[in-house]
Amino acid sequence: MTTEEFNKRIFEMDKAAKEYAADNLLELKNSTHWLADDEKPITKEEFIDRIKLYSLMWLGEDIIMGYVEKDDRDLLFRHFIDVTIEDYKPVCADMRIDMNYENDDIDKKCREFAAEKLLSKRDFIRSHRIFSMEENMTELPECDNTPITKEQFMEYMSIESICKLLDRFKVIDAVKVPINATRIVYKTDEKLFYKGVFIFITLENNEPVDADVVKLITDNGQSSYISVPTEENFYRFRVPTNDNNLEEV
User: Fold this and answer.
1) Phi/psi at 182 (nearest 5 deg)?
2) Series of mean pLDDT values for 10-residue runs along the chain (249 residues)
3) List of residues 6+ apart from 232 with CB closer than 8 A
């Protein structure tokens, strides 16, 4: 896939994601609880026109496209919209809000969960680093391959941000059951993996259920998160060839 083809694909996903978000969240927006004082219900076209893409995140097999309001803070009252993309098609629209978190028990539980899931993958992740185009790879320090303990792994994590994922459901016996879902973003010390790496912990009903390792990439002033290579997803990563196309590793 060339750069032009990639940009075209992103444009198409952005358009589809906005329409999907409007189709799934417009009814919620137009409910009494989500209308500002003296605000009238809005149309699908108005909903789409009032949101903009602010982040693009690769998590495992999925792409998460994040949206915020363009000019005002009344559309969804400072909430964010995350649209999950599978096979380049939107399949889920979540609403979330950043929040403070002061629960030491859950924080410890998340750190233990991450260490148990990711400690064995540390060497592979560190030996398959990914970089921003703006990073000078020749100036990056060598990774210290000294083994670390589970306790050290947990010590090298610090909470960066927390958000509440709204309108999450599981279908059980054909019935939608609401899920209390939260995502905690942990910043990591360079001793754990390497510079710019974060750990995303997803919780359901205050129990950690998933841990993703991502790298913050900044190119031409635009920032996004992308999953780092692990043994499980390494086959999905591709390298550029001389003709600027992409080829399986």
Assistant:
1) -140, 145
2) 75 93 88 76 92 79 82 69 89 73 80 95 86 58 78 93 70 69 89 90 88 80 71 49 38
3) none
Report pTM: 0.60
- Note whether 117 and 169 are same-domain residues: yes
Q: Tell me, yes or no, whether 164 and 80 share the same domain.
A: no
CA atoms of 244 and 61, how far apart (whole Å): 24
For residue 101, give the DSSP letter.
-
Cα distance between residue 177 and residue 189, in whole Å: 38
Residue with tokens 């919620």: 28
**What's the DSSP call for residue 71?**
S
Does residue 206 share a domain with residue 118?
yes
pLDDT of residue 167: 59
Question: Which amino acid is residue 215, in one-letter code?
Answer: K
pLDDT number for residue 100: 54
Amino acid at 34: W
Inside any domain, residue 236: no
Q: Which residue range forms the structural domain that includes residue 158?
A: 104-221
* Strand blocks (E) in 70-196: 80-86, 89-98, 157-172, 175-188
Q: Which parts of the chain are beta strand (E)? A: 51-59, 62-69, 80-86, 89-98, 157-172, 175-188, 197-204, 207-219, 222-227, 238-240, 246-248
Number of domains in the chain: 2
Residues 175, 77 share a domain: no
